[in-house]
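Handout, page 2. Input:
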Amino acid sequence: MKDINDILAVMPHRYPFLLIDRVLEMEECSIRAMKNVTVNEPFFQGHFPGTPVMPGVLVVEAMAQAGGFLLFSQVENREDKIIFFTGIDKCRFRKPVVPGDQVIFEVELIAKRTAFAKIRGRALVDGEVVCEAEMMSAMGER
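Output:
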């Protein structure tokens, strides 16, 4: 298990855009990470007042960050690298994510070349899939 300090040591993201709180499990080609969704998240101020819903694009971004942690963990000199999102396929939103939810991201690496990777991810709340997608990325120099 990796806590927030371990995540900060690997990921270039910072508040308010770091969207994973803990890595629960990690193997060479897969990761399970978690986000605790709280009502004081900055995006809830406008999305939507009176009916707070985590924006779907941020659910996908958090899933991609879990995959990014997996990829960055395998890279030397990662402080000189950056991973760019290059595509999203087969993305589906099944249920809204709301304050109080604990989202578990299950991400697996399905293809990797030198600088390019493809991952498949699912976001779950209480064991139910709330989002799923395939995402592509490219690693470059900072």
